[in-house]
Amino acid sequence: MILFLSQAPFLTLRAQDANNPFELVDRLPETARMSSIAGQLTNPFEVVPHKKPGVAQVLAENETAPFTPFSILPRGGGMPQSTLFWVLVIVAGYLAFSIAANGGAAGKAWLSFLSDNGLNVMQREAFGLVGNAPYYFLYGSFVLNAGLFIFLVVRTFTKEAYNNLPFLLMCIAGAGLAFITKHLLIKSVGWLFPVTKETERYNFLMIVFNCVLGLFLMPFNFLLAFATEYFRFFLVFWTLGLVGIFYLYRALRAADIGVKFLGTDQFHFLLYLCVVEISPVLLVIKWATVQG
Question: Measured between alpha carbons, how far is 68 from 287 in angstroms, rounded to an integer?
Fold first, then answer.
């Protein structure tokens, strides 16, 4: 009994060094006993100070880099005015070719811009690829002028930050991609819902209005490119206001196409407005705000 009591502290220490605090180490095989004694594990009931996980620590310290969607754009200035002049000459030459290819296309587009009757006549005549080809040429002129206008507006507010030819080409490509995506979205709405006739009319309405807007943007692009700095700021806001009034008028004409769905399909009509019309504008504004 005395011998057992004298060995009790030693057994307690040995038991705490084992993997299981309640394991009798002496009853284990030789190899298991040696590995168990060699592994000096901590007490499973010991209170360990809390450590922040890696992800939580990064978020808590706010070390994440800000999202800059425009960081991939080619920065730098130095594009001479002569290069911009020749780009404008090429765009003006393309517009002249588009009008000369079918002299009546520009006049018909203007009449369709003014009245629904002109739009109906023009849509009946523009059948197939051959009938729509003159308006596609005018639409291409609008895309070129829209990209140029975006470039000139950015150059006005950022000085020499993006005054280079690669950024100009990216503006033109971005304008074309944006409007092609818009037309495809309208087309998909016609495929998903029984509104094919209305979506085709709305798509044609956008083509007509953009053709006319391209004619208006051409002289303003020349003025913005070579005007003085003070007059350039005035022209930017004047042209943006004109474009805003232009698209407001187009929205009123487009509302006449979809107003009959308000009585029966309010949800789908509002869903279309949010997804196709409002969300792209808000997305661009958000990107610009984050970049700023």
Answer: 8
Q: 262-277 pLDDT, tens per residue? A: 666 666 666 666 766 6
The CA distance from 211 to 134, in Å, is 10
Q: Give the integer Cα–Cα distance in Å for 68 and 155.
A: 19
13 and 148 part of one domain: no
Torsion angle of C-alpha atoms 227, 242, 93, 153, degrees rounded to 10: 50
**Per-residue pLDDT, 11:** 46
HEC per residue, 169-226: HHHHHHHHHHHHHHHHHHHHHHHHCCCHHHHHHHHHHHHHHHHHHHHHHHHHHHHHHH
Examine the domain organization and report whether 104 and 38 are in the same domain. Answer: no
Query: What is the number of structural domains in the chain?
Result: 2
Do 16 and 95 have their domain in common? no
Q: Are 171 and 151 in contact (CB under 8 A)?
A: yes
Write down the residue that tokens 């168990």 correspond to: 36
Residue range of the domain that includes 35: 1-42
Separation CA 273–CA 140 (nearest Å): 26
> In terms of domains, do 226 and 123 share one?
yes
